[in-house]
Amino acid sequence: MKIDREDLLGKMGEKKKEGFSYLVKITAVDYDKHIEVIYFLRDMARSKDDSIEVEIAPSDAWVPTVTQIYRSADWYEREMAEMFGIEIKNRNARRLLLEKWNGKPSPLRKNFGWGEPYERE
Amino acid sequence: MTISRINIGPVHPSTHGVLRLVADIDGDTVVGVEPHIGFLHRGVEKLVENRMYMQCPPYFEKLDYVAPMSYDEIYVAAVEQALGVELSERAAYSRTILLELQRIASHLLWLGTMSNDLGQFFGMFMWAFRDRDRVLRLLEEVSGARMFYVNMRLGGLVRDFQPGFDERALEVLGYVERRVKEYERFIEKNPVFIERMKNVGVLTKDMAIELGVTGPVLRGSGVDYDVRKDNPYYVYGKLNFKTQVRSECDCLSRYKVRVMEIRESIRLVREALRIMPEGSAVGMPTRLIIPAAKNRIVGVSREMPRGECFVYMVADPQRPYRLSIRAPSFANLAALGEMAKGCKTSDLFAILGSLDLVMGDVDR
Amino acid sequence: MSTGDFVLAAMQISAGASGMAAALSYALTVLLLIVAFDYAFGWAERKVIAKIQARHGPTYVGRFGLLQNLADIIKLLSKEHAVPQKASSALFTLVMPLMLGLSIFLVLLVPFSPDLLGPDLGMGALVVFVLLSFMPLMAFVGGISSGNKFSSIGAQRSALMLMAYELPAMVVLASVGALAGSYGFLDIINAQALTNWFAFTMPLGFVVFFVAMLAELERPPFDMREADSELVAGWLTDVSAPYFGLALFVDYTRMFLGSLVMAILFLGGWAGPVLPPIAWLLLKAFAISFAIIIVRATTARMKLDRLLRLGWVALLPLAILNLIITFMIFMR
Description:
The complex is a heterotrimer of chains A (121), B (364) and C (332).
Chain A: E1 2-3, H1 8-18, E2 22-30, E3 35-43, E4 48-56, E5 62-64, H2 73-84, E6 87-89
Parallel strand pairs in A: 1-4, 5-6
Antiparallel strand pairs in A: 2-3, 3-4
Chain B: E1 3-8, E2 20-26, E3 29-36, H1 44-47, H2 57-61, H3 68-83, H4 89-117, H5 123-143, E4 152-153, E5 156-157, H6 165-188, H7 191-197, H8 205-211, H9 215-220, H10 227-230, H11 251-275, E6 297-304, E7 307-315, E8 320-326, H12 328-333, H13 336-340, H14 345-354, H15 359-363
Antiparallel strand pairs in B: 1-2, 2-3, 4-5, 6-7, 7-8
Chain C: H1 3-13, H2 20-52, H3 68-77, H4 89-108, H5 124-132, H6 134-145, H7 149-180, H8 185-192, H9 198-201, H10 203-216, H11 241-266, H12 277-298, H13 304-331
């Protein structure tokens, strides 16, 4: 289901109470006009999957952290921050995960061109 | 009380590749461990955005170089779903068989590296590699390559099984089964092995779910979840097998889950070979020009040897628009810090071994 | 300090020997024996472990790969001796030759046959055992002085392990001494005669001593000091090739010493029919080394805290029990 990022934390909390206690993955897709952040959740007991999508504008790319609800979100959020240049609000882990890439543009954004080499910071 | 910080890796005998751990040690007790990853990051998720659909499987195989067939398969399955390609019955059976053979090979390798991490001087390592090679030879016979098969095509395989594959496979399975029984005796009757694994790296059921571990680590913590059972694909729904769950939550229970899974896989392959229908398992040629994708967004979930892999793909007509991989090793490694807190220095490596990491899988 | 100094030291001790020449020839013979044993043992270890692991081991250099170790020795010795920047250079350089000297000196104290005797100190077993426990301390100094964290962890483990095995071994040694009425090697061998091996009279003590000796020699499953899958190479992490070669030589010499001591204390020493005494002793020593190799090839590494527990909860009570049984049955 698509929701606003302001409602994200509330919705995630609700989902967790419903039994979706397992976070499968957090990922993002860059659709040029907007970026979609997707949270895949799972209810282990009933083997049911669900997902929450949040649309954000590329110019104002941030989402609140969900680590206080799902601890396993930690690495996925950091990876997403690094690969998509999406700022994760309200958390202090600044260390990047894979490539230590915080140059512009972020590698998995669509405006990251092919061909010309980029300098790593 | 002084805390010293040691740097383990990226070049170290027990990190199975290029993992770097920064461990704070107080005497012989590990206070905290922080994994640093990314040394093997090849940007596959980005690379595939610039490749035709059927150019990508080789990239995927190199993600998990211990079980390449399963990554090959999950990618092709995602593409199949996007394009709406149907599989023939025989193709579904043969894929199931190949995946299970790959699981046996992968778990055997794990058995070897794990006992090496526990300080067993390469004995089990060599034996497990020898037996794994018998399985690899079967896969080689099917695909033509020993390690990186690129054996999946849309709608099936590159080529069908050779005549007489059944007998050869059954012989190898019998051999592996005998061997595994022997290894089990070798390890479980040795008090040192048991002592090194029992009550080490305890991850309770709630913690396992909270930290998002998957696969044998999750099942070793008493969570009954196996994609093959709970969300069956191919012919797993028709086959008769049990999900292996142990609730001791320590390294020993992870070991037992994996050994039992080898057994279960052997049973699965035997059954699948018996009831596999005639027909053709050959898929479409690689150079197929693909019309517009049928489903734009697909998600495919598979139980790999290392745990659940989830591929989320946004499809364009000729190539993936965006492809995101949830790698099982990545999820398991994220839990290491929590599991290793308060253990002894030696235990750190037992825990690391019990996670069955493949760094290519972690870094992608 | 070179080997020569130790030979001199040995000569001074061997006041009973018939002069300089005899002492020198004895020292040289023993040195030759050590080198021969270490070489044979190095080859056997490779071959046996290879066979257990379904491999072939060395096959190319020489027949059955017999010359492979020679090639390795040449390789190790021809490399540069590098001292890490952080190491305290003098200690780091000194420790290995000291260990080598000590281990050779200790072998000199062990009698090989009625004709090939070192100085009989009257309490040889005790002296050897006490001096042998200097080795972990030297390894400790070596590991700490290299300035590497893995090395210092290995060194600390090496020193801590002392607490686990030293006491049980000493208690078993006490019962051996009680049975033989002396701690001299000669008396112990004579007390066992041809078949009255102490391994039969006190099997419990033999087992405890074997386990303690494995720990003393820091062989698997008690090789926490090196722990190659944990500490890279433990106390040897920063050691360069020639010193690594020396360390191997020291380890093998210690093995030789340990096997000899065990053969003398429990397997009747050189007593045996037909073959000359020295052949019997070496045969028995080799049998024990073989057992040590098999243990190495088939078991995992223990944890340090588990070893300490094993030492205090299992080995020590068993050793004391063994002592009590010995006193009750044999002393009367």
